[in-house]
Amino acid sequence: MNSADNFTASEPEDQDIAAAAHHAIPYLDGNAAAGALSEVFRIDIIAALGRCRHCGSVRYFGAAMVFTDAPGLVVRCRDCQGVLLRVVETPTRYWLDLSGLSYLEIDREE
Ligand SMILES: [Zn+2]
Asked: How far is ligand 1, taken at its centre, from the CA of residue 95, in Å?
């Protein structure tokens, strides 16, 4: 049992997800990313709608899959498991990769 021989879902560009077909990686929902992301965005990102660049799915950010067993947080699409967002915190900086999101729709009403 090696490589991604049995991986049948549409393949995201991140090859590490292939491992998930054989070894379930524990994850949390989008609320797990709220602390770090509220520092960056200063908005309620959990209630924001995000469009996955990989499959086009539009969901509330809170419905995403958050993997914390990585350098930083990795947020994946619940539908295709493509990477939506990565955030890494250092003592002095945040490194934020939003390249997996086509857009975020944020409610201006609080
Ligand atoms: Zn997707």
From this structure: 22
